[in-house]
């Protein structure tokens, strides 16, 4: 097998009231042959998320109140940079991202700075329909043109980043609640980061209550379209500091 495009990879799991699922997701990840380190960012949970994650073997970073995925990921990127990791991968705490696909997503960094685990790329049976599908196709089309490569799932949170992308995220990563995926990707591309996607399979939520229902998902995608338009007007990041390079 070719040499991995990283020496130390950190799995970052943002988690908000995921006590029912986070422990098993951490255990599954720690059981992988590659032996990843796992950081759970407890995003102001009011249940036993932090305790379950710690009991399962994760390092836990507790936020005093709920910031949303963007704020939690910013904290995770800072932790990764300060502790010397040269690759990170975001994994949902609810178990929808299969830990067996983590290495596949990280391997995408062989040819890019950001690797997206794509749900609509000829693997798995995950499907969407109606307005949500149309919005996702519109976003994918615009961002594919910016990235000059075909991307089919630009709202996927299953993503890996190398040192260049981590440094860019530290300079610019939106902390707005659930506003991270589109805005962060557009600015990273404008700042010179190369993006690829690799196919992954999406599992059903392993337990707990989803933070999204169909109405919230539709509102989120509508907001994402506006976020895209806003992101296109943002400045690119300044010269990034390449840690360890």
From TrEMBL:
Domain Glycosyltransferase 2-like intervals: 11-135
SUPFAM superfamilies: Nucleotide-diphospho-sugar transferases (SSF53448)
InterPro entries (alphabetical): Glyco_trans_2-like (IPR001173), Glycosyltransferase_2 (IPR050256), Nucleotide-diphossugar_trans (IPR029044)
UniProt superkingdom: Bacteria
Any Pfam family the entry gives: Glycos_transf_2
Family (UniProt): Belongs to the glycosyltransferase 2 family.
Name of the protein: Glycosyltransferase family 2 protein
Organism (species): Arthrobacter burdickii
């Amino acid at each position: 097998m070719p040499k991995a495009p990283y020496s130390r990879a950190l799995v970052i799991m943002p988690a908000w009231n995921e006590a029912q699922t986070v422990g098993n997701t951490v255990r599954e990840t720690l059981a992988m042959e590659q032996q990843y380190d796992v950081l759970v960012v407890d995003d102001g949970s009011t249940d036993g998320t932090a305790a379950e994650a710690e009991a399962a073997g994760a390092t836990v970073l507790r936020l005093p109140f709920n910031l949303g995925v963007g704020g939690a990921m910013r904290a995770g990127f800072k932790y990764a940079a300060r502790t010397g990791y040269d690759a990170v991968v975001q994994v949902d705490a609810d178990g929808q991202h299969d830990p067996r696909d983590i290495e596949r997503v990280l391997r995408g960094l062989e040819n890019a700075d950001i690797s997206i685990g794509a749900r609509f790329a000829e693997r798995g049976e995950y499907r969407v329909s109606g307005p949500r599908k149309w919005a996702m196709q519109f976003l994918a089309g615009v961002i594919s043109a910016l990235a000059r490569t075909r991307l089919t799932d630009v709202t996927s949170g299953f993503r890996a980043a190398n040192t260049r992308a981590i440094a860019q995220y530290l300079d610019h990563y939106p902390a707005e609640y659930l506003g991270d995926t589109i805005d962060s990707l557009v600015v990273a591309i404008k700042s010179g980061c190369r993006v690829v996607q690799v196919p992954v399979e999406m599992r059903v939520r392993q337990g707990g209550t989803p933070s999204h229902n169909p109405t919230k998902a539709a509102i989120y995608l509508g907001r994402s379209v506006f976020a895209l338009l806003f992101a296109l007007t943002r400045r690119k990041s300044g010269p990034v500091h390449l840690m360890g390079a």
